User: Fold this.
Amino acid sequence: MKSLEVEKEKSIPKHVAIIMDGNGRWAKLRGKDRLYGHRKGVESVRRIIKYSAKIGVKYLTLYTFSTENWNRPKNEVDGLMKLFSKLLEQEIPELYKNNVKILFIGRKNRLSKELLDRMVNAKEVTKNNTGLTLILAFDYGGRQEIVDACREVCRRLKLNQLEKLDNEEFSKYLYLPDVPDPDLVIRTSGEFRISNFLLWQTAYSEFYFTEVLWPDFDEKEFDKALEDYSKRERRFGKI
Assistant:
């Protein structure tokens, strides 16, 4: 019995990152506007957060809004901002109750004060929780994160505050240096690209792509990704 539990534990990735794609297409197939699809996508977010905590995932990173998403139509961007702000207000009590800790990655200079205040509140309220760590990538871009890290490295070099620079040292200047790299990256909707997501951190991640649109991604679909992951042999460049 113990060996079965050990094997099950091995098959559960410590850190899962998800590119949640397909809300707009899901809505279009039903004759609805894109914001309707985003609202339905929130239901999948709730399901996957709850299920991740249940099965023992330690870190879950969700690609919520990318730096490129600002180029979408203004009404969609405004709707997404309002939706995200409203959800942060509504969902925090439940997430706190379920021992979920919330962190954010991304730039903050383009976000409204109301949204920033709610992000700060969410982080503060849940900071002592010890269960699943939920990381929301908002106004996030992998290239921008690396550029921001380079800026900090250059600043420290200029001040003679840096004695060496290698991969391990550089990683300290990323947005969340204490969070382990993703073991598994999932992308929904049938697209085969990573769209500027966690470029540094996913160097040795396993990838799983599914045709399922995000609003239809549920526990059963998540299990398929986990089963596929459990069959991978992770070598990290070794033989």
Notes: Residues 2-141+181-230 form a domain with the Undecaprenyl pyrophosphate synthetase fold (CATH 3.40.1180.10).
